[in-house]
Please model this.
Amino acid sequence: MAMSPLETVQQVYAAFARGDIAAILGHLSEDVAWESWADNSAQKAGVPWMTARTGREAVGEFFSLIARFEIHDFRVLNIMAGERQVAAEFEIDATPPGGKRYRDQEMHLWTFDGEGKICRLRHYLDTAKHIASV
Model:
């Protein structure tokens, strides 16, 4: 039996905690839309980790960048699940490579396709904090 979207997202965060990027990528559709926003101030300002990406390989590049962050704290506070979407509220305290430390309360909105794969991730955050941290 396939995992529910909630179980999949829980597995993604568990894989992130142990640094298992291959496991995360395995939950993504081939053409996953990562940080696909119509109007994102952090993307317009050139924040590298907020770049819109399409496909597993491009998302792998995102995780290669994130691996260079110093993560001081990352805690999932709450996860809310619907039929095809899961929202996760979390706190992060991090220093990007060559940048300034930031602390933010953020949301991930995970969307699933008909095959049970993640087809979209949108990250809701304080874009001003991310822009200032570059």
Observations:
- The two ends are 43 Å apart (CA to CA).
- The domain at 5-133 is CATH 3.10.450.50 (Nuclear Transport Factor 2; Chain: A,).
- The first helix runs from residue 5 to 17.
